[in-house]
Amino acid sequence: MKAISAKQYGDPDVLEYGDRPDPKVAPDSVLIRVKAAGVNPVDWKILAGYLDPMVDTYFPLVPGWDVAGVVEALGADVPEYEVGDEVIGYVRKDGIQHGTYAELVAAPVRTLARKPAALDWQQAAGLPLAGLTAYQAIRRVGTAAGETALVHAAAGGVGSLAVQILVAQGVRVIGTASERNHDFLRSLGAEPVTYGEGLADRVRALAPEGVDVALDFVGGGVVDVSQELLKDRSRVASIADGEVTKKGGHLVWVRPDSAGLTALGELADAGKLTVHVDAVFLLSEAAEAFRRSQEGRTRGKIVLEVS
């Protein structure tokens, strides 16, 4: 099969496009013919060695955790799927080596769900990691219809999905973003505010009594700002602030979750959630996709088109 791989840690220039052995399929896994693979910031952070202290990494490394594709073969004990089924997955395993930037991926069924019919292959590939991150962060803080949520980096891959999930729940959403993304946020049902100095005052102008929950998808001290605005300082979740638990909030490290993926797919098929694809690259252009992600100005998702 063709795949992207790296023989060592480094910048995007160490990525190579070429032949790799077809993956082995464990009894509880399926072999997926990949249609598209989502690109996430964690992918280039793994390549840079940032996760080395906490996760075993093996070379040559095929990056990628997001996948959308068609089941091509079944493991010995997989009653959940049949050959030809269309699936999506957040294919994170215990170690890092056999990722989704490839024509074929072996994925444990615990990481998969059926592809939402309402999403095309590129949109479907952008849903799993970002969608589950948003979904699990929202569940961690708890939300109810009529409440107000503050979402930081609301136009990004995770933030834009969190906005839609919250709106579907009947939650009022105030989202931070650069001015160029304000109309985009309005189209998702959020009330945009510009991030940066004076943010607390801008949020109070919209919500004088404060907010009920806050979601930090960017880091950079926004947990502190959020807690100034929260009615209950514990109802903040962050994927980027390692000190958030010491501040009384919640740190979220997204986990594979078939039920959560299924719930996101149901929202998509009900017309309540979509995935904005900011840029599409060929599999062979993965290094360029990494550089685009590193710029940190993506609206929605970056995706690799595989087949």
Question: What attributes does this structure have?
Answer:
single chain, 307 residues, alpha/beta, Quinone Oxidoreductase, Chain A, domain 1, Rossmann fold, 6-stranded parallel sheet, oxidoreductase activity, Alcohol dehydrogenase, NAD(P)-bd_dom_sf
Would you mind describing this structure in some detail?
It is a single chain. With 307 residues, the chain is α/β, with parallel strands linked by helices. The chain folds into two domains: 2-127 and 276-305, Quinone Oxidoreductase, Chain A, domain 1 (Alpha-Beta Complex); 130-251, NAD(P)-binding Rossmann-like Domain (Rossmann fold), CATH 3.40.50.720. Helix content is 27%, strand content 27%. It has helices at residues 41-47, 121-125, 128-141, 157-168, 182-188, 199-206, 222-229, 258-269, 286-294; strands at 2-5, 16-19, 29-39, 57-62, 66-74, 86-90, 96-98, 104-108, 112-114, 148-152, 172-176, 191-193, 213-216, 236-238, 250-251, 277-282, 301-305. The strands form four sheets. Strands 3, 5, 6, 8, 9, 16 and 17 form a seven-stranded mixed beta sheet that branches. Helix 3 (128-141) packs across helix 4 (157-168) and helix 6 packs parallel to helix 7 (222-229). The radius of gyration is 19 Å and the shape is globular. The relative contact order is 0.17. The model has no long low-confidence stretch (mean pLDDT 97). GO terms for molecular function: oxidoreductase activity. Residues 10-304 form the Enoyl reductase (ER) domain. This is Alcohol dehydrogenase. InterPro entries: ADH-like_N (IPR013154), ER (IPR020843), GroES-like_sf (IPR011032), NAD(P)-bd_dom_sf (IPR036291), YIM1/Zinc_Alcohol_DH_Fams (IPR050700).
